[in-house]
């Protein structure tokens, strides 16, 4: 019977430690957040992958399709 109580207490302690570590991470999942098409467009423009003309054309197309 004592063995059963030890298992319960160990599970409680593990659960508390897990909850604290999860809270410190901000509760985010391990999966990265996907950026929206507009965010990707802005990032690519900021990194110099797109010219201003390409950026404006694609931005208009994205806004029109929404």
Automatic annotation (TrEMBL):
Entry-linked InterPro entries: SHOCT
Residues that span the membrane, as ranges: 6-24
Residue ranges of every copy of the SHOCT domain listed in the record: 37-62
Keyword annotations: Membrane, Transmembrane, Transmembrane helix
Tagged with keyword Transmembrane: yes
Coiled-coil boundaries: none
Chain intervals for the UniProt region annotation (Disordered): 23-66
Name this protein carries in UniProt: Membrane protein
Organism whose genome encodes this protein: Salinibacter ruber
């Amino acid at each position: 019977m004592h063995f059963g109580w030890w298992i319960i207490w160990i599970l409680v302690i593990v659960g508390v430690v897990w909850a604290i570590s999860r809270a410190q991470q901000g509760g985010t999942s391990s999966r990265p957040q996907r950026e929206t098409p507009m965010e990707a467009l802005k990032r690519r423009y900021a990194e110099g992958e797109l010219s201003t003309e390409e950026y404006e054309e694609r931005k208009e197309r994205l806004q029109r399709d929404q």
